[in-house]
Give the backbone structure.
Amino acid sequence: MMSNAACWTHPATALMIATSLLTACETGGSDPVGAVCPPVVTYDQAVRDRAAAELEALPEDAALVGMMADYAVVRAQARACGPD
C-alpha cells in the first residue's frame, strides 16, 4: 500500500501561500497615523469617454487593457485611503 503522507503537505503549502497573498492585500495598517494617501487625478467626462473609446478599440489581449484594470484598482485604493 502506498503512503499518502505527501498529499497532505500540498494543502498546507497552498494555505500558507494564500494567507500571505491575502495579507498582502490588506488595505489598512495597524498605525494609520501619518499615513500619506496619493492624490487621485480627476478627469472630465470628455476625457473619460475618449479613453473608454480608445481602450475598446484595442485588441482583447493588449497589455494596456490589463494595465488599465490595475490602474483602476490603484485609483480605488487611493480614493479609499483619503479623507471621507
Q: What stands out?
A: The mean pLDDT is 74. Residues 27 and 77 are 8 Å apart (CA to CA).
